[in-house]
Specification:
Layout: E1 4-9, H1 20-28, E2 31-37, H2 50-55, E3 64-69, H3 77-97, E4 100-105, H4 114-125, E5 130-134, H5 139-147, E6 158-162, H6 167-174, E7 179-183, H7 189-198, E8 206-209, E9 217-220, E10 234-237
Parallel strand pairs: 1-4, 1-5, 2-3, 2-4, 6-7
Antiparallel strand pairs: 7-10, 8-9, 8-10
């Protein structure tokens, strides 16, 4: 029989936001792999990640395997590729020894997820593997629920931008007609605040970090003061809605 690799989205951090299907997948898997950020020496940094903390609410610790990924490596491509290759080899070993391996990822496995790169590597290393995904609740959905921000109405488009691509990309999106969601903007909070002000979007925008965790923060974007925020901060900037109920239909 073919081995199975299942990418399981475990949501933004609140264990209650893992879907029933996600919980069942975690419990049914022989092994649950969780990504760990690499230390400067390339080894396990020791700190449990958000995905691991969520998984431990539903799967026993003895079934969880930590695998190092270069999650924060952007400048040294060779180091990043080597880390991905090593992680792929480790997961391939697990697949050869077990019938079903789950990989837990925050948010959704098909939205800016490490699982994408892992799956590409595994398909080459284990040709008969069956790759599946279980969708997860995203940070923008969670932030919308916690803040009361409406993501889309009527015919409005929705644009999702990783601010790691640069503030110019965000400005272009904010100049458009729909809601803009920005991921990973914490280190560029000052540029984001400037872009919101320049495009007239700051008044109704909200941002949040550590959603569902004790250190959660959900605030109006107008309170951004230029200080850096947690890396995984999320922003929602809705368009103006001045036409009343159903005005965008």
């Amino acid at each position: 029989m073919s081995s199975r690799l299942i990418g399981v989205g475990v949501g933004p951090g609140d264990p209650e936001l893992v879907t029933v299907k996600g919980v069942n997948a975690l419990r049914a898997a022989d092994v649950v792999v969780v990504p760990v950020m690499a230390a400067p020496d390339g080894k396990d940094g020791g700190e449990p990640g958000r995905a691991e903390a969520t998984v431990l609410h539903y799967a026993p610790a003895e079934k969880v395997v930590r695998v190092v990924f270069a999650l924060n490596e952007r400048s040294d491509r060779a180091r990043r590729e080597a880390a991905w290759d090593a992680a792929g080899e480790r997961v391939a070993e697990l697949l050869r020894a077990h019938g079903c391996v789950a990989f837990a990822t925050i948010g959704d496995p098909n939205v800016y997820s490490t699982f994408t790169y892992l799956a590409q590597t595994i398909v080459e290393l284990v040709p008969d593997v069956v790759v599946e995904t279980v969708p997860g609740i995203t940070a923008m959905q969670d932030l919308a629920a916690r803040s009361g921000a409406v993501l889309t109405e009527g015919t409005e488009p929705l644009t999702l931008v990783p601010v790691t691509a640069g503030s110019a990309v965000l400005k272009d999106a904010l100049a458009g007609p729909g809601t803009v969601v920005a991921y990973k903007f914490g280190r560029q909070a000052a540029e984001v605040a400037e872009a919101l002000a320049e495009t007239g979007r700051i008044e109704d925008a909200v941002w949040g970090s550590a959603l569902g965790l004790p250190e959660e923060s959900v605030r109006p974007a107008a309170e951004l003061d230029g200080e850096p925020l947690p890396y995984l901060s999320t922003l929602i900037a809705p368009p103006r809605r001045d036409n009343g109920r159903g005005g965008k239909l």
